[in-house]
Specification:
This protein is mainly α. Helix content is 71%, strand content 0%.
């Protein structure tokens, strides 16, 4: 008995291309980091060098991994960022729901003794930004907020949306886009297989998967952006 080959629709083919573009761009930049990450990080960490080239180098690397791919696709397809849930409707519900999903992760960080202070918009060059004057601090912090906050969080929302459209399911609690992006987020961070490592894995999974399911439920992506602005990169 022969199996009939399923023909993809034009929309499904377009979504496949979108996802491949994002994956290839992100992996190309990640491979670049893998090959030259040491010298790049040494450069970015060298306080004897002006803070601006160091900030731009680290921001370009971060944006290349989490942001450039979705930007290229949106420009190519003439899609606005607002069409992916950047709207006022349900924004409060999205933010509150996302925060609730991050509570176990926050509790784990605090109770495991890893909490060293609440520092939103803090990256490698932030201390030197603060030493360079008020204008440099303001502009530099805005760049950090856009790259490490907005684009990193929004990147999850857009990729999850493309995968969800490509592989739709009717389940209220399961979504392929949320699952794939959650696994992607976990794999891009160190994994330890001791007790604390397993707790870290579980709480991170709850945070990211929950965040993306809240996005799907509310059709609002501001929760994802809020999480990376004020939680993920702040504690």
């Amino acid at each position: 008995m022969t199996r009939t080959k399923r023909t993809l629709t034009a929309e499904q083919k377009k979504l496949d291309v979108n996802l491949w573009i994002i994956a290839l761009i992100s992996m190309a930049v990640f491979c670049l980091y893998g090959a030259f990450g040491g010298p790049i990080m040494d450069f970015c960490d060298d306080s004897s060098i002006s803070v601006w080239p160091r900030l731009f180098a680290s921001a370009a690397l971060e944006y290349g991994i989490a942001g450039l791919g979705i930007t290229v696709v949106c420009i190519m397809r003439k899609l606005s960022f607002t069409s992916f849930g950047l709207k006022k409707e349900n924004s409060v519900k999205a933010v509150l729901g996302t925060v609730a999903c991050f509570v176990p992760y926050i509790a784990y960080i605090v109770l495991s003794g890893q909490f060293e202070g609440y520092e939103p918009f803090s990256v490698m060059v932030t201390p030197d930004l603060h030493k360079a004057g008020i204008l440099t601090t303001i502009v530099g912090t805005l760049i950090i907020a856009v790259v490490w906050g907005f684009f990193e969080g929004f990147n999850y929302a857009v990729i999850a949306e493309f995968i969800t459209r490509r592989y739709p399911v009717k389940s209220k609690w399961f979504d392929w886009g949320a699952l794939v992006c959650t696994i992607m987020g976990i794999l891009f961070h160190p994994i330890h297989f001791d007790t604390l490592g397993m707790i870290d894995f579980v709480t991170t999974f709850i945070a990211l998967y929950g965040m993306l399911m809240v996005r799907k439920s509310t059709k609002n992506s501001w929760g994802c952006v809020f999480a990376f602005l004020f939680i993920w990169n702040a504690i």
